[in-house]
Design goal:
heterodimer, A: Rossmann fold, two-stranded antiparallel ribbon, 5 helices, 42% helix, globular, B: alpha/beta, TIM Barrel, 24 helices, 11 strands, 51% helix
Chain lengths: 156, 568
């Protein structure tokens, strides 16, 4: 199923040549979108293709959009304290579907104590307020590179 | 093209600015030479609204009509304040925004604050409540009681206000999408406590336009929410005379990233929309305009904020009088609540936030606010602890009772810089009104995403300025410390969620289900007729302990849902 995603107009294409595609989502009941809009703009200016999931998507909807849009990275943000439940739900759904080639990064108001737990689930970054955009962009590029490599290896 | 009201105002202000020859001379002869010696920032200085700030203001910077535009406190155009004696007659209300966990947790916090000298209540609700979901909905998992208190039914309101006399203290509720439901709950609660509706006082935020603009908390399409606001407006104008049925809010617009001018312009434009709505509902402007209140942000650029508050009063008074023909002075008086800026609080070196909040609180007082919430230093980390809230409240006590700042009315009035800035902000605001009018009014401008885009643009620009070190944030991009030590924060136990769900189940078992169904059915029929006022029907539903989600779902069926315009 994943094989089809690797060709464009029948021609196989190297991932490094395509812009990184990233889905930005707040997968819970949280409308604080200042940060995510700043990121949307910054990712776009960094040459990425950006999709915003809109207001209050469920974790199921986030994963569905990520698959349909064939993204490299899902960036999750929450400022309402529900990250331990909501981020985990997104990961669980991805795991259940056996999807390993979409990177998941996180951010928002995340207490230090939660960060290792999120990392363990596979959600990296987990940046808080005041983080430089460049640091976040570089992290996304790194994670996108990893999953693209994984896809290329699978495709070979 | 015929000049609109707004364009005429822009002209008027523009004409009141004169050329400042003495300043130019000083600049050329003295300043420029000196600058060469000391060095200076060639790019110049701006405020949050990207207005150019000069290094010096003189008498010549005062607008021509300065005396008239300034006036006296308690007199039109209220630039210096809405009351003749301002804080000498009545100190501002110290109203701390509070709510977390279960209704019992919040009741305890409210009583703690009252004991410590708070003079008005302000309730924060959690995300499920704000979006009209019950605590036992799957979507609420992990969010119950996290960002505020959870209210699923009237029972929860009874617990929050247990032992609090509703006839003695006013209550502000930050609730928007389900505002009419919570208002109905508060009215029914008063009934149950045998307090007449004419005796209760308070404010419900309810401003839905700014939700589509900034805070993004809605359930239905704009027209449906606007109708509910109309119903609250009409009902309370007739039955609950001390109830501020709406608090037109710039706070969230600012937090979403706008500049001070954008906050001012978009908030007042929303306010005019609600004025039009009341008139369209057949009310006399002077009957309902006096109960319209406002809510602004006080951010860190001290003079810009003070100028914003003063400009807000002058614009509101001018437009209500000249454009709408209001006669009642109270219709023209813009009264507002202020909250210090959450955005300016830093996670890094949190104690510095006490200073930021103090500066912002001073700006609010010097700007003539009617009530104030001061943020706690730990709020970039979590909801505040008792200790942090107390420091924030004491900040207000120190300003009010030690500093002397509140002893004189509008003590900065007449400052060359402040007066000029007030007029310039006024002009910039009128320019936005003119632009919004060209887009077909504020509702269309919001539906098209124009306002949202303007804010996102400013927000991004600000972020880049911080990253490029053009704007300093102490502890974030300058004076950074390598090892940030964690601070003691308020932890909301998951037990709050379980308790709420258990309680809700009990309530659902105890209530008369037939009555619940009947009242919900009647509400449905009433919703279908656009001309019916929904307040009595909502009050019936909550009286029977219909839950917030059951009531909201009737609206979801009738009105449908809403997808925001894409701005990215």
């Amino acid at each position: 199923m994943l094989g089809g995603r690797y060709s464009v107009n029948g021609k196989s294409q190297k991932y490094t040549e395509k812009p990184i595609k990233i889905l930005l989502a707040k997968p819970a009941i949280d409308g604080h979108d200042r940060g995510i809009f700043v990121l949307a703009r910054a990712f776009r200016d960094a040459g990425m293709e950006v999709i915003y999931a809109g207001l209050l998507p469920t974790p199921e909807e986030v994963v569905e959009t990520a698959i349909n849009e064939d993204v490299d990275v899902i960036a999750l943000s929450l400022l309402n304290g529900a990250h331990m439940t909501a981020f985990k739900n997104v990961m669980n759904i991805l795991n259940k579907k056996g999807i390993r080639d979409i990177a998941v990064v996180g951010g928002g108001i995340i207490p230090d104590i939660d960060k290792p737990k999120l990392e363990k689930m596979g959600i990296t970054g987990n940046y808080g307020p005041g983080t430089k955009l460049n640091i976040i962009i570089e992290h996304v590029k790194k994670r996108a590179g990893e999953v693209r490599k994984m896809r290329e290896n699978e495709y070979k | 093209m015929v000049d609109s009201f707004w364009d005429a105002k822009i002209n008027e202000i523009e004409k009141s600015f004169k050329k400042n020859n003495d300043y130019e001379m000083w600049k050329n002869n003295t300043l420029t030479e000196w600058n060469k010696k000391t060095g200076y920032k060639e790019k110049g200085y701006t405020n949050s609204s990207y207005m150019k700030i000069k290094e010096l203001y003189t008498k010549e910077d005062l607008p021509d009509n300065f005396d008239k535009a300034l006036g006296y406190p308690g007199e039109y155009p209220y630039t210096r304040g809405v009351y003749p004696n301002m804080y000498r007659g009545r100190p501002w209300t110290m109203r701390m925004f509070s709510g977390f966990g279960t209704p019992d947790d919040t009741n305890k916090r409210l009583k703690y604050l009252i004991k410590n000298g708070e003079t008005g209540l302000s309730i924060a609700f959690d995300m499920p409540t704000l979006y009209g979901y019950d605590c036992d909905n799957g979507r609420s998992a992990g969010e119950v009681g996290k960002c505020g208190v959870n209210v699923s039914s009237l029972y929860d309101m009874e617990r929050i206000f247990e032992g609090i006399d509703l006839s003695k203290i006013s209550t502000s509720m930050t609730i928007n999408a389900p505002a009419a439901i919570l208002t109905a709950m508060y009215f029914v609660l008063a009934e149950k406590k045998n307090v007449e509706l004419t005796k209760i006082a308070g404010t419900v935020q309810a401003d839905i336009l700014k939700e589509y603009i900034a805070q993004k908390e809605w359930m239905y399409p704009p027209e449906a929410h606007l109708r509910l606001i109309r119903d609250m407006l009409v009902y309370s104008t007739k039955n609950v005379p001390k109830w501020n049925y709406i608090s037109v809010s710039g706070y969230h617009i600012r937090e979403a990233g706008s500049s001070a001018v954008q906050e001012l312009a978009f908030t007042l434009a929303d306010g005019f929309y609600y004025i039009d709505m009341g008139i369209d509902a057949g009310l006399d402007i002077d009957d309902f305009a006096p109960r319209m209140s406002f809510f602004f942000n006080s951010s860190i650029n001290f003079f810009e904020e003070i100028a914003k508050f003063r400009a807000a009063r002058r614009i509101w008074a001018t437009v209500l009088k000249e454009k709408y023909g209001a006669k009642n002075p109270r219709s023209m008086q813009l009264k507002f609540h202020t909250q210090t800026s959450g955005y300016t609080l830093t996670w890094q070196q949190p104690l510095n936030n006490i200073i930021r909040t103090t500066i912002e609180a001073m700006a609010a007082i010097l700007g003539g606010t009617q009530s104030l919430h001061t943020n706690s230093y730990d709020e970039a980390w979590a909801l505040p602890t008792d200790e942090a809230v107390k420091v924030a409240l004491r900040t207000q006590h120190i300003i009010a009772e030690e500093s002397g700042i509140a002893d004189v009315i509008d003590p900065l009035g007449g400052s060359y810089y402040l007066e000029r800035l007030t007029s310039e902000m006024e002009e910039e605001t009128y320019k936005y009104f003119s632009e919004i009018e060209k887009l077909g009014g504020i509702l269309d401008a919001v539906k098209k995403g124009y306002i949202q885009k303007e804010i996102a643009e400013t927000s991004y620009k600000k972020q880049l300025r911080i990253e490029n070190m053009e704007d300093t944030i102490v502890g974030v991009n300058k004076y950074i410390e390598k090892d940030e030590k964690p601070i003691n924060i308020l932890k909301i136990e998951d037990i709050a969620e379980q308790n709420q769900i258990r309680k809700l189940r009990e309530i659902k078992n105890q209530r008369d289900t037939k009555k619940v169904r009947e009242s919900l059915n009647k509400l449905r029929t009433a919703m279908e007729d656009e001309n019916t006022n929904l307040m009595p029907y909502l009050m019936d539903c909550v009286r029977n302990y219909a839950t917030i989600e059951e009531i909201s779902n009737v609206g979801r069926e009738i009105f449908g849902e809403w997808k925001e315009p894409k701005i990215y």
